[in-house]
Write a structure and sequence with these properties.
Order of helices and strands: HEEEEEEEEEE
Distance between the termini: 30 Å
CATH architecture: Beta Barrel
Strand order of the largest sheet: 1-2-3-4-5-6-7-8-9-10
Largest sheet: 10 strands, antiparallel, barrel
Number of helices: 1
CATH topology: Lipocalin
Helix content: under 10%
Number of domains: 1
Length: 166
Amino acid sequence: MKKCLLSIAVVAFVFALCATRAQTTSLSMYGGGPHGFDWALGTWACMSTSHISHATLKVTRTSGGALFYRSSGENFDNSWYAVYMPKTKTWLAPFIVSDGSYGTESTNQTGKKIVWTGTGYFADSGKTLTIRDTNVVGPNTYADVGEVRSGGVWKTEYSVSCTRTI
């Protein structure tokens, strides 16, 4: 479950990263509109408190305009899209992990703190759980706290931080 939870974290934190590429954009604009996460394009080095301590994240634009994310590390591989839904002004992020875990998170928030919510199926346990990622961004910093809801209680599962490498 920890590998899948890190995947969920990577999905969420990448959308809220405040890095050098986007220094001219105010924090209130992150996540806003169809280009609200363009600043994430590039390569990132990520660290986590889970057993997968390091991962490389590559973000590219698809021919259809969505963003494609791939995060990989030792015994870990996760891919997802970030798709903007203009009618509802919502970002949707379906993901899949190499162990068979999958899910979707979404948000319509913008700014320094963005909360993503959704559900994830965890292949190692066979359970589908409600998930939440809280992203907080600052100048060249990003933090993501990932949680799962089980038995009516939110439980923190990981914390992730990333920095741009390219």
